[in-house]
Amino acid sequence: MRSVVIGPCSPTPYLSFRTDIHDDMAENPKPFQKVEYVLFDMDGLMIDSEKIYTDVTNEILGKYGKEMTWDIKAGCMGKPERQAAEHLLSFFPDIDLTLEDYLIQRNRLQDELWPTVPLLPGVSKLVHHLKFHNIPIAIATGSRRRNYEMKTAHLQAVFGCFEGKVICGDDVHYKFKGKPAPDIFIIAAKELLSRDVGSVGESPTEKQTEERSKGLVFEDGLPGMQAGKRAGMSVVWVPDHNLLDVDYSGEEKADQILRTLEDFVPEHWGLPPYSMGDKQD
After folding, report:
1. Quick one: DSSP state of residue 192?
2. pTM value?
3. Which residues of 260-270 are buried (b: 16+ CB within 10 A; e: fewer)?
4. Catalytic residue selected from 20, 23, 24, 41
5. SS3 (DSSP) at 34
6. Is 183 a catalytic residue?
7. Which end of the chain has a smaller Cβ tally under 10 Å, C or N?
């Protein structure tokens, strides 16, 4: 097992993700909190962009004989662009690469690939199902708005279902800390879905706490999973299999861990069940 530091504390592993995923895939899973609205991360959860991030980053680091391992990548996932880059480069203080130079190189290489990024399994079916049943949905991503547009322009059959209800990491009209802070999910619920969940930095009332508990967050990253739980919402974690071997130091634990969104069963969360006519991916 490998160790990764997601927050400022030292790693004190307590969570076996591989055990949890087998428990959550059992035929008779534990009952979950009934939910009324759903928030999605994007990169690595809805689209297969994390491979592009990894390949491009390692192409740049390879010039210096370095590599971004999953121990490092786990702490980058879900963070706004600059925060993620700062986290990455903090592991390589001996290379002659500034933050700005890294971002210029990375963005140039990524821009060529974003228009080809595919949806991940189960995404189209789930999004269309929630939309058909009028379940409020929104996207909360650390991706920059410019990159969001590039990644999704060719995938509007799915992303159009959100009707513009998207918060990106560089949206200046919303002031928030990046994941694992809960800010982006609280803001998405309040500003995009008009849920009475209170405000960032303020203690929620009993009613607002209850309203937060009605939200379901889909995430693939560890910081994002933490953010969803800190927001007082339920979290379905759909990690890359490499993350299952990372020792985790945080207190937060996902409510459910799945291999893919294809494994999600809506009625387990009090949502309408899939029907035979639901669109397949």
Report:
1. I
2. 0.84
3. ebebbebebbe
4. 41
5. coil
6. no
7. N
SS3 of residue 204 by DSSP:
coil
Contacts of 129 (CB under 8 A, 6+ apart): 266, 272, 274, 278
Which amino acid does the sequence have at 220? D
CATH 3.40.630.30 fits 1-6+37-265, yes or no: no
Residue 55 is among the residues annotated as catalytic for this protein? no
- For the chain, the structural domain boundaries read 1-6+37-265
Element (H, E) at 211: helix 206-213
Question: How far apart (Å, rounded) are the C-alpha atoms in residues 98 and 103?
Answer: 9
Q: Which of 20, 23, 43, 96 is catalytic?
A: 43
Element holding 48 (H helix, E strand): none
The token duo for 241 is 């299999």
Instruction: Read off the pLDDT of residues 78-110 as tens digits, 9 standing for 90 and up.
Output: 777 888 999 999 999 999 999 999 999 999 999
State how far the Cα of 95 lies from the Cα of 61, in Å rounded to an integer: 9
Taking only the tens place, the pLDDT of each residue in 167-215 is 999 998 888 898 999 999 999 999 999 999 999 999 999 999 999 999 9
